[in-house]
Design brief:
The complex is a heterodimer of chains A (109) and B (116). Chain A is an all-beta fold and 109 residues long. Chain A has no helices and 11 strands. Chain B starts with a strand and ends with a strand. Classes of the chains: A mainly beta (109), B mainly beta (116).
């Protein structure tokens, strides 16, 4: 089973600051990695797929990078609506596996 | 507009069964793989099971293997999850999602509570 480890668990930042979230896989997932945003009381929303492609309607301030085992989600300038929990997910061995990381909470400092 | 509407959740005793349904609309259902993902109260996301467009490929998380069965009816644009031998740790909000390697769209979830 591929394990995804996200860090940090919590990121305390102010609006306008840059957020950098990390996701590390226990073995290579090539570029089969996605990022999701979840706000309280809402379903998750796909932000990034294939490591660096923005999903439909996702603002350009969100970007993804990485390949193999190390991935990064960057929010270049935090908007007040960006404070949420972010999850990474790998789909490299679907349907045998489809794993989520533990999440990073981006909170207002 | 993609719509995924889950139903069938509720309160159930440990060891009993429950069947979840997901009604899909706004896209060509039989073009897409589908997944069930759950979220225990206050916890993160956990993939439960997925099924390819033609039911030819199916996967389960180890935590539910042998107890849960995923299926779909393309004629009815519907996805199902048969959950048997339910345990307290299966208590969660269960989401239906559209997509193969990724969950592109999500429903709002149906809550399953396993308790005596």
């Amino acid at each position: 089973e591929i394990v995804l480890t996200q860090s940090p668990a919590t990121l305390s930042l102010s609006p306008g600051e840059r957020a950098t979230l990390s996701c590390r896989a226990s073995q290579s997932v090539s570029r089969y990695l996605a990022w999701y945003q979840q706000k309280p009381g809402q379903a998750p929303r796909l932000l990034i797929y294939d490591a660096s492609n923005r999903a439909t309607g996702i603002p350009a301030r969100f970007s993804g990078s990485g390949s193999g085992t190390d991935f990064t989600l960057t929010i270049i300038s935090l908007d007040p609506e960006d404070f949420a929990v972010y999850y990474c997910q790998q789909g490299s061995n679907w349907p045998r596996g489809f794993t989520f990381g533990g999440g990073t909470k981006v909170e207002i400092k | 507009e993609v719509q995924l509407v889950e139903s069938g959740g509720g309160l159930v005793q440990p060891g009993r069964s429950l069947r979840l349904s997901c009604a899909a609309s706004g896209f060509t259902f039989d073009d897409y793989a589908m997944h069930w993902v759950r979220q225990a109260p206050g916890k993160g996301l956990e993939w439960v099971s997925g099924i390819s467009w033609n039911s030819g490929s199916i996967g389960y998380a180890d935590s539910v293997k042998g107890r849960f069965t995923i299926s779909r009816d393309n004629a009815k644009n519907s996805l199902y999850l048969q959950m048997n031998s339910l345990r307290a740790e299966d208590t969660a909000l269960y989401y239906c999602s559209k997509g193969g390697s990724y969950a592109e769209d999500w429903g709002q979830g149906t809550l399953v509570t396993v308790s005596s």
